[in-house]
Amino acid sequence: MAGEMVAFLQELVRIPTVNPPGENYRECAEFIGGRLLEFGYDIAYIEATSRPEHTPRHPRVNVLGTLRDTPARPRLHFNGHFDVVPVGDGWTVDPFSGIVRDGKIFGRGTTDQKAGIAASIYAVEALRRADVRLRGNVEQSGTVDEESGGFAGMAYLAEHGYVNRDRTDYVIITEPLEVDRVCLGHRGVYWFEVETRGRIAHGSMPFFGVSAITKMSNFIEAIEHELKPAIGGRLTSMPVEPPGARYPSININSISGGQPAGGIQTPCVADRCHAIFDRRFLMEEPIEQVRAEIRDVLDKIARKDSDFQYQIKDLMTVQPVLTDAKSTLVTTMAASIRDVLGSEPPLIASPGTYDQKHVMRLGFVEQCIAYGPGILHLSHQPDEYCRVDHLVEGSKAMALAAMRLLGAE
Predict the structure, then answer these.
(1) Is the full-model pTM beyond 0.85?
(2) Which CATH number fits domain 188-318: 3.30.70.360, 3.30.830.10, 3.40.190.10, 2.40.30.10?
(3) Which of 70, 120, 213, 253 is most buried by a 10 A CB count?
(4) What is the pLDDT of residues 368-390, one digit of tens each?
(5) How far apart are CA 381 and CA 114, in angstroms?
């Protein structure tokens, strides 16, 4: 079924589900739903109506398929997100063409992570066509907004009981963590915004004012020379890949201050500056400590500089998650990969977060992993692609895992 699976992936890629703002979600959900309906699933379209990002222009539409004529439990849930990041510059092919060249399918979202959706759907369909009767149930979901936190996607499904421990035994999220390894979880993330305040004055007489931009630079300098060295020696026991991500990190996502660039400028000292920071933290670091360390840096500056005024606002906190390496899901998936590829799959953790956080923290499903085709470092890159052989191998491993987890006859 490789040719059929590749053609399905090409069609998925040709639907430009770019986030932000969340384009063509309904069209993509219905395309996936149509294929699931054809393959023997009952279909539900779940709109995240209570979320502020759900609008008439950009509705947040998820699709959930439940395999018909199978026992309710045990239940294996395959999930993939179909939103993709903006294209960016540097492409040498049409990013929404789904072109196949040299054994690779090119396009935005091929690796991250529409290939995973195709692999899981065709894994179960291969069993159906081979007249394998499963002794448990399979669900397939295509969800939105993972790239912006997943709150209208998997979080919404978990909060509303579609994925939870009372009805779901195993969850495989088909993120591209490499076809030959199993991902057990991810680090934590703390996003926060800092605003520094100054005093406006004429740009020709800046000594009468206080530059909020300068004050922000003081904070950034303290992060570079004080906070980073303080946290840089901490090392997690989680098997995070790449190894450099086994240490804490902090990154400046964005910064803005003064008057908007590109317009007419007037000579003024900037009295406002905003920056958004991305702090990745380890399982060994309590979030209370992470927050306190940021505030300690700000307070230390304020004690030394009476003109340093600031406000800090929490934007998003995600706790680290890690599934037990000895759990049934992990050992079964690892054995299935071993049988397909002939090599022992490494057990890893992800440097960034994905929707496992919602499955485990909101749905309370203990056995959740990420496994899917695709080369991780190609995610969000120009000329993103997924190898056809990885797509097929990943689908084979998922099929074996489904048979072994649910039982078959």
Answers:
(1) yes
(2) 3.30.70.360
(3) 120
(4) 999 999 998 899 999 999 999 99
(5) 15
